[in-house]
UniProtKB/TrEMBL annotation:
Keyword Cytoplasm carried by entry: no
Sequence intervals crossing the membrane: 26-47, 170-195, 227-245, 265-287
Keyword Cell cycle: yes
Record-given protein name: Cell division protein FtsX
GO biological process: cell division
Organism, as annotated: Paracoccus salipaludis
Domain of life: Bacteria
GO annotations of cellular component type: cell division site; membrane
Keyword terms of this UniProt record: Cell cycle, Cell division, Membrane, Transmembrane, Transmembrane helix
Amino acid sequence: MWRSLAGREAGLADRIVPPSGATAKLTVFAAGVMAFLAVFALALALATGRLADRWAEGLAQTVTIRVSAPASEIEAQTAAVQQALATTPGVAESRLLGGEEVEALLEPWFGPDVPVDALPVPRLVEVTTERGFDAEGLRLRLEAEAPGAVLDDHTRWRQPLVSAASRLRWLGWLSLALIGAAGAAMVTLAAQAALAANGPVIRVMRLIGARDLTIAQAFVRRLTRRTALGAAAGTVLGMLAVFALPDMQAAGGFLTGLGFTGWGWLWPLLIPPVGALVGFAATRAAALRMLREVR
């Protein structure tokens, strides 16, 4: 590949292959579009991976205890729950949610100004866990000491969220693979068009003794350079577009954190060389195959 692009024979392409304006512009444009889409597919894959890890880690470290009991017993059962938590291994911290926090949790369903004191709202205890926590053991203990307490470890809704984020991550990687395949097909068509348009030049080169490999290297160099140029431009534009995305942290949206963080900004820089490699392989295979078929 290096000899074809920058070796001693690299200059042959500029003298052998006539520049074709339409093919050159379309190749550069298509490679740029593919690289632009690849940046966003890569950002989606990395962001959803971080999201899945964060949800799995964050939800696995918290459980909620709901205390539902008659008004005459709820205080005693809440105290029994807190006492049980104080002596349970693996409980790092427990906190009884106040009325304002419970009101904020109910607001999406009942609207603002929820009369928490007038409603039979259960007491909620938020528990932060650490290594060694036994959810099933605590659940059995609460059944004996506080029958109105229900332990919720968020498994029912945690797993679907983590699974959805994981599937989105694999969808991002699949999109990258499909973009690469589409780019290879695009370069193959461009190579075939260039070879067909330069049929007279190829016949003359064969008459003077040029080998098919030499002819193919000339076309490979030109189309690979166009592909690399378009991929570099598309990558830069894609990175700028990702950088310009609005910050959704305050809104708490599902796509919070879409983009690159820290050293992750180096990943898109691999797209231009990978695009050049795909262009080289696709062009060389198409050129050699077509030269063997056309005599």
